Amino acid sequence: MDVIRLLGIRDTPLSVDEVLSAVGDHAAGGTTIFVGTVREQDHGKPVTRLSYSAHPSATGELRRVAEKVAADFPVTALAAVHRVGDLELGDIAVIVAVACPHRDEAFRASRTLIDDLKAEVPIWKHQVFADGSSEWVGACA
After folding, report:
1. Directed axis angle between helix 58-72 and helix 103-120, to 10°?
2. Is residue 129 helix, strand or coil?
């Protein structure tokens, strides 16, 4: 069975339960999950709204990143989903989860997965601040 159990870029709300269920594995002694949410400020400025956009290649790039993590760590199960579209404060923007035989491996693999996703998958964040200014942030940085 493929260790990459769930990947997606979605315009609908993300589910922690779905992702956690996808990585359930009896061979794993450690499972980590990271949930990224929309925060109320960035750069010390209040955020009023934001939206994510993805390049058509984003799903393929997400798979490439996931495959590299699965090859570099003893992953027994992996999942990653990212939201696109308009999000409100507190909404879940991204979830990654990794299961490995041991906790240290799971933590390291999960950190690599989210960091590489943010750096390499072409997803962009447009955030609008309370003062009316806005900014585009590349690769969800």
Report:
1. 150
2. strand
Residues 6+ apart with CB under 8 A from 54: 9, 82, 84, 121, 122, 123, 124
pLDDT tens digits, residue range 39-66?
A: 999 888 999 989 999 999 999 999 999 9
pTM over the 0.85 mark: yes
Whether the Cβ atoms of residue 36 and residue 97 lie closer than 8 Å to each other: no
pLDDT of residue 1: 57
Spell out the domain ranges in the chain. 4-140
Are the beta carbons of 125 and 92 closer than 8 angstroms? no
Give 109-120 pLDDT, tens digit per residue.
999 999 999 999
Which CATH number is 4-140 given?
Answer: 3.90.1170.40
Q: How far apart are CA 95 and CA 14, in angstroms?
A: 8
Q: Which helix (H) or strand (E) holds 99?
A: strand 92-100
Sheet hosting strand 92-100, strand order edge to edge: 4-10, 77-83, 92-100, 30-37
